[in-house]
Amino acid sequence: MRHMGLNSVVLVAVVFLLVATTVPIKAETGATLTVHVDSPGAVINKYVYGQFSEHLGSGVYGGVYVGADSPIPNTRGLRNDVVAALKELQVPLLRWPGGCFADEYHWRDGIGPQARRVTRVNTNWGGVPDPNTFGTHEFFDLVELIGADAYVNANMGTGTVAEAAQWLEYMTGDQDTTLVRERRANGRDKPFKVAVYAMGNETWGCGGNMRPEYYADQYNQWATFMKTSQQPAPLLLASGDRDGAATDFTEALLENRRARMDAISMHYYTVLGPRWENKDTATGFSEKGWITILANTLKMDGYIKTHDELMTAAEKRLGAEGSADADKIGLYIDEWGTWHQPEPGSNPGFLVQQNTIRDAIAAAANLNIFHKYADRVQMTSIAQTVNVLQAMVLTDGPKMLLTPTYHVFHMYKPFQGATSLPVGLRTGDYSYDGVSVPQVSASAAKTLGGEIVIGLANLDPHRMVEVTTIMEGMVATEVTGEILAADAMDAHNTFDAPDAVHPVAFDGARLADGRLSAHLPPKSVVVLKVK
Ligand code: AHR
Q1: How far is the CA of 242 from the centre of ligand 1 (A)?
Q2: Whole-model pTM over 0.85
Q3: Which domains occur in the chain, in start order?
Q4: What burial letters (b/e) apply to 474-490, b meaning 16+ CB within 10 Å?
């Protein structure tokens, strides 16, 4: 292990002996993974590793933006520690300002001198005042500081087509117009770059409780007027279905598409269920909670498959008709992650939750699924970046910690822009109290540097598994890896022990006679790099 003094080593040895004598580690199991290096699939769009920052609780104010006169070290009001952590994570795309918040957000409230900005009530999240000191310019300052692209969500709920079109001109215009002059007067000469522009959010619910056909018409009207000279033009995104099981918005959008539509979104959160209201605690949960959260996470696969099939069928139909709209459109999972009960004592409207090794494994399992559908899932954003739901980073005043989910995203960085490789996986199940999941989750890709990267997770909290990997079309000569693992099912980082769960070099992989084997401890995520 890295960074360990002698005392720590002795302590670990003692803990290991105690654990070894008190907790029986059940017999090792086996799994076989075949990686088809010889038949590469689609490129994993780096936007699959996108993030979401909403005006929600301390997701922006306090967590990211503290104001230029804060004692917390900052750059133009943006926390230096959080900016550094997100830059290190190589966040490719950041979604803002919501979520439900987006459909009550008027962009003019958030431009110009901060002292003159209006304060409004955030009706969706806790009913607290939003001072609008974080607006368009501050958002682009953030994305440019962390090296990300911008995903902006327009307000269809309480806004107008003109307001959304003018926001786009304000952000991206390059001619001598009144709006561009206003942007320049507010301190930004060259245009901002908008990578994704979304027309509304969750229009089936907080975004307006619309019928699918009504929204499809609205989308067509709005998308028609989102004009910009920016090249390439922002990807235009339609708001899609609520969870993977529903398909009525996707179907209505595919059926009635008349304006440019680069992608349709889908939101799927993992909750304990079976009802939405029934959330697990983020820590201190039972083994039933452990397996149920993981089983519900894996439902993402079937939901994507269903939407992919609908999209493929629509594209075939349009292709047969010779339509110019037959091009493949993306499925953007622009809200996903675990949604647990709020932390005791926190404002329930702020959606603050701890983040454990269970969340880390759920993240790895979802990422493995996204890689499998790389040709269709071209963007995702986990909810949310800081202090909200399945966060990367938690803050408490001047303190900051990195969550286990952050570490998984860090370990999985080589997958960004890599070429997905089909995998065949033979694994046994892990079962508990009537629920079963495959013990192992896996995906593989060929990185831009030519290495093979393999993401693995052992969902079983008790049994180690030996994964034997066959590399079809490649003779492997070298393997290295990183592991994130923990003893307790709810192991997590706290402000007193911010490094309790962190990745270390993995020494459980062996290459012999071209055969690659890896011993995954219970409750672990491993990323291997193979040459
Ligand atoms: O991420 C929190 C909320 O979940 C978003 O604002 C909304 O779109 C979804 O229901």
Answers
A1: 10
A2: yes
A3: 44-418 (3.20.20.80)
A4: bebeebebbbbbbeebb
